[in-house]
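Notebook entry, structure prediction.
Reason for the run: the old model in the group folder had no record of what sequence produced it. Starting over properly, with the input documented here first.
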Amino acid sequence: MAGNHNPKPTSVRKQLLIILAIYSLLCYLLRMNISVAQLFMVPELGLSDIQVGQIFSVFMLGYALFQVPAGVWGDRRGPRFVLTAVMLSWGLMTLLTGLIPGLVMRGTTAAFFSLLTLRFLLGVGEAAMYPVAGRVIANWMPASEHALSNAFVMAGNTVGSALTPPLIAYLMQALGWRFSFYLTGVVPFGIALLWWWQARDLPQQHPAVNQLELDLIGCGRKQENGSSLAPSRWTLCKDWNIAFLCLSYFLTSYVMFVFVFWLYKYFVDVRRFTVVGGGWALALPFVTATVALPSMGYLSDRLAARQGALQGRRIVAMGCLMFCGLMLVAGAGATGPWIAVSAISLSVACLFSTEGPYWSTIIRLGGGRTLAQRVA
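New structure, fully documented this time:
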């Protein structure tokens, strides 16, 4: 008799998770490329270190201000449309970063203000990435795999962070800093089309998802929106657990973006690595983080199953943060450059390993709503 007697769940959710990880990779590649390109960009445009710091900061301003609006937009308009739209904006802003400063907008002042504008807009576009990815994970992944799923997506950013320094350093030396923006700016357009083709807002809407996968995710075909029993936004705003989680994440992100934007300059200027050598040195912390992230996400899920969701994830996050601080102090005080790189690599790995627990916790606290709570 023809037919499949042993049907298996489809794996559409895993395909979406892989695309989200690619999104995450590009998210960090496109925000970090300027931290390496500045080595050649700054002298050509006549910028000062203070101006460079302001350019880095204005990205974070746009990123922080639009986290909550982006999360609300993702809830209302749906992840499929929102993530497609913002990915297109990432590509456009990156291409224009290589084209406008010094070519279209000539002179130091004009170049400076054009970079401020472009980086702010890139921050606005990237603000949607992780809140809306959180909505996808809440909709598509079983609750028992939330930390691991978030960690897998966040591992994309560590892969991007590891690839960016040597890639941009090589492109800069071979073809100039502008070409590094042109090349990295083209890729998002293809990924946006892939996401639009493959993604749906809910598992029930995807024609390739079978009933076994719906059951595994935890929803039936009659369920159209899991947010009906979720707390209101006002209730979420009054929840002290969410307030403290946001404060903790803010402090964590402060250190994270010191690593993202300034670690390459530290390796080249203070630890005396070459342009390309600094790129390879900077890749090591993020390679280490790529291994640690899913491992700690898996451990977080296992502890959550044994000791309760919040307690299990709290243990992993607190342990990683404490070890992160110890390794950062050790790295700053190390005399040898490679000892410093090794200690900082462990510090970066521990810092990024908190992402799975953080994001799975906010999904848990938010119920059916994955409102943007990433404050920095």
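Summary: The chain has one domain: 12-220+231-366.
The old model has been moved to the deprecated folder.
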